[in-house]
Amino acid sequence: SYVLTQPPSVSVAPGQTARITCGGNNIGSKSVHWYQQKPGQAPVLVVYDDSDRPSGIPERFSGSNSGNTATLTISRVEAGDEADYYCQVWDSSSDLPYVFGTGTKVTVL
Amino acid sequence: EVQLVESGGGLVQPGGSLRLSCAASGFTFSSYWMSWVRQAPGKGLEWVANIKQDGSEKYYVDSVKGRFTISRDNAKNSLYLQMNSLRAEDTAVYYCARSGFYPRSPFDYWGQGTLVTVSS
Q1: Is the pLDDT of residue B69 over 90?
Q2: How far apart are CA B15 and CA B67, in angstroms?
Q3: To the nearest whole angstrom, how far is the Cα of B113 from the nearest Cα of chain A?
Q4: According to the model, what pLDDT value does residue A95 have?
């Protein structure tokens, strides 16, 4: 099945930019979705189809996808952005159609 | 307002059974693919199963095939997961999640989750 690899952790100072990568074989040919999960809470969709934002998600959250890497970028990081972030793709040709990345813990210093 | 409320979790012995329910409101339930996604304690997210709008197509992760059955009742706006022959490795928080009109759609709304613990 398809594998998505994320760095276990990313640390960033308030006001700076956090970049979370999601690596996968030719991931640029797939649509990537990103979820934010705070402790004890359900995941929340923050970016879908590589770079679109659901209603209510701040413009500070943006995404890109090319080649073998997709990236979630959080600009002007705030304390409230501290959470786990997961990428996800749909792989119609796989026996496991929905694949999540390994997850990245974002710590705001 | 879209709401998904899971219920039915609890403590069960290995080999036992449990039925999870998810009550949906705030949207036209019958128009959406629906999924179950689980998260073992301290671990990442894992998709478990999904079902088409009319229930005619169902898909499962290999580890639960033959043991879990997903179903839905559009008249009751409800999603279900029948879990049989439970194993310790099935211990997790189980989330009900809405997809879209197509299976490739993202999971745009999630319930709060229900904890299933498989232990003797």
Answers
A1: yes
A2: 10
A3: 7
A4: 79
Cβ–Cβ of A96/B47 closer than 8 Å?
Answer: yes
Residue A107's contacts (CB-CB under 8 Å, 6 or more residues apart) are A9, A10, A11, A12, A82
| Max intra-chain CA distance, chain B | 41
Strand locations in A1-109 (E): 9-12, 18-23, 32-37, 44-47, 61-66, 69-74, 83-90, 98-100, 104-108
- In Å, how far from its chain's centre is CA B8? 11
Closest CA to A43 of B80, B83, B98, B68: B98
The percent of residues above 70 in pLDDT, for chain A, comes to 100
Which residues 69-108 of A have a C-beta within 8 angstroms of B?
86, 88, 90, 92, 95-103
Choose the closest CB to B113 out of A42, A96, A97: A42
B110 vs A contacts (CB less than 8 Å): 42-44
| Contact flag B107-A100 (C-beta cutoff 8 Å) | no
Q: CA nearest B103: which of A53, A92, A70? A: A92
- The mean pLDDT value of chain A amounts to 96
Q: How far is the C-alpha of A108 from the C-alpha of A105, rounded, in Å?
A: 10
Interface test with A, best of B33, B94, B99, B104 (most A CBs within 10 A): B104
A60 alpha-carbon distance from chain centroid: 13
